[in-house]
Amino acid sequence: MAKSKAKDTKKNTADVGFEDQLWNAADVLRGNLDAAEYKNVVLGLIFLKYLSDRFDERYLELVAEGYGDEEDRDCYMEQNVFFVPEEARWANISQAAHTPEIGQIIDNAMRAIERENDKLKDVLPKNFARPELDKRRLGDVVDLFTNVQMTDNESEKDLLGRAYEYCLQKFASMEGKNAGEFYTPSCIVRTLVEILQPFHGRVYDPCCGSGGMFVQSAAFVEHHGGNVVQDITIFGQESNPTTWKLAKMNLGIRGIEADLGNYADTFSADQHKNEKFDYVLANPPFNLKNWGGEALQEDVRWKYGMPPTGNANFAWMQHMIWHLNGTGKIGLVLANGSLSSQTSGEGDIRRAIVEDDLVEGIVAMPGQLFYSTQIPVCLWILNKKKAQSGKTLFIDAREMGTMVSRKLREFTEEDINKVASAFDTFRKGEFEPVKGFSAIADLDEIAKQDFILTPGRYVGIAETEDDGEPFEEKMTRLTSEISKCFEESNRLQEQIKKNLEAIGYEMQ
To answer: What pTM does this model have?
Structure first.
């Protein structure tokens, strides 16, 4: 592939190259499979190809060294490369691509890899032999992965990682309302990451989905010249076993080490119960009703008040706060109701969190950012050690973003930078408010608003640019235009009535 051009800051992430070609070609496999089933097939194959290619790369290095240890499992593990037994190597799979047994061969390859690598135990999909999966089409997709040219001045890891993330995005689009279980739009994740700036430390997501928060955190570190392995340590939890597996593969394909524990409910079976973190990034399920609050009435995490049993928003928030160390930060996506709700004690909890000076900033986001819901959302930025003590930054970004389809909006790089820059200048004490977009409020001002944190209450209304036309002249012109519109409307109405009468119908 040709060397990519410099990225346009206004270009949205829906514009792709290699990944799009891969998706369009692999889509032939879908047939009558629903998106949820098809997802595991495609993503499983991407991961298998990655494992095999990384193994082959290390294999050739060992052959070149000439010590005869190219089949020594330890020589791979010491380089953080998964050992791939011979029957699971892509060369053997591609050779069998157009045999009736290809599904069973892939399933056996997945089992063999799991036996050799404890970290992948019970992670890989093993459902390629099922009758409803067209084996001819499966062979075509294997050919696709065999023949694809991965030469874009990027490592194969990066290309396959991009392909994995892009396919997750496409599956989110296909699955609609179910997509929220495994995918947070990358533009939202990048916004949180750019605000929090996780350069160094322990990163945690208690509802990590397919691991998007971790992928973007790692990308941030690399972009700023850091070393992911040395600079950040990743912890997460996910209750859905299928999604947990997606996360393990998503991180594995990028070489990111992570402690995700076992798949389990975060509230009732916290996998990192006694851990404290530097950064928490999360997009929990919105307004989750049945979260098990009845059994957790006296839980140590509810420092600011017992969350309502019918809505988990402030249970998630308090869980994350409890897991912060003394200088920790939180970037959290919640439904807008969390900013203003007064029901079931939510207003009291929000007030207590504000009075403890934890709320560094609130961002009201535009609608139509999610595949799974049209619920408007906001970003909560909490900080145990605020640079501007006693102050909160409010940003109204509801009019920002670009429509990339009839139903989907996306933050551009320019949008992300605008929001992140506001936080940067705020922390440096160089912030200048922009009417209609951003403002700072202290505790007294927030108290006057009854601790409602809706940014529109604080930023005001943007000033409209004066077009230079005198008011009287403008009103004369506009009323004349409206009068002409009325005349045309009346004319069309009379014409419609005549046409109806001509065919025997009379309007009452």
So the answer is: 0.80
- Biggest alpha carbon–alpha carbon distance for the chain: 97
**Three-class DSSP labels, 450-468:** CCCCCCHHHHCCCCCCCCC
- By residue count, the chain amounts to 508
Instruction: Quick: pLDDT tens for 417-458.
Output: 999 999 999 999 999 999 999 999 999 999 999 999 999 999
Q: Which of 121, 45, 44 lies closest to 82 in space, CA to CA?
A: 121
Residue 298 and residue 224 in contact, taking contact as beta carbons nearer than 8 Å: no
CA dihedral 22, 24, 28, 33 (to 10 degrees): 100
In the chain, which residues have pLDDT < 50?
A: 1-16, 149-154
Q: What pLDDT score does 28 carry?
A: 67
Coarse DSSP helix, strand, coil percentages of the chain, rounded to the nearest 5 percent: 50, 10, 40
Can you give the pLDDT at residue 10?
38
User: How many angstroms separate the CA atoms of 422 and 431, rounded?
Assistant: 7
CATH number (1.20.1260.30, 2.60.120.200, 3.30.300.30, 3.40.1350.10) of 18-176 reads 1.20.1260.30
Domain boundaries along the sequence of the chain: 18-176, 182-459, 468-508
Question: What's the rounded Cα separation, in Å, for the pair 288 and 272?
Answer: 21
CA gap 143, 66 in Å, rounded:
32
Are the C-beta atoms of 174 and 35 separated by less than 8 Å? yes
Type of residue found at 410: E
Exposed, middle or buried by CB within 10 Å (0-12, 13-18, 19+), for 422?
buried
Q: What is the pLDDT of residues 371-381, one digit of tens each?
A: 767 788 999 99
CATH code for residues 182-459: 3.40.50.150
Mode of pairing for the β-strands spanning 438-442 and 391-396 = antiparallel
Give residue 189's pLDDT.
92
The answer to whether residues 89 and 52 touch, using CB atoms and an 8 Å cutoff, is: yes
Contact 267, 315 (CB under 8 A): yes
Cα 101 to the center of its chain, rounded Å: 37
Contacts 24+ apart (CB under 8 A), 22-30: 22/144, 22/148, 22/163, 22/166, 22/167, 23/163, 23/166, 23/167, 23/170, 25/141, 25/144, 26/141, 26/144, 26/167, 28/137, 28/140, 28/141, 29/133, 29/134, 29/137, 29/138, 29/140, 29/141
| Dihedral pair phi/psi, residue 428, rounded to 5° | -85, -5
Contact partners, residue 365, CB within 8 Å, separation at least 6: 188, 376, 377, 378, 379, 397, 398
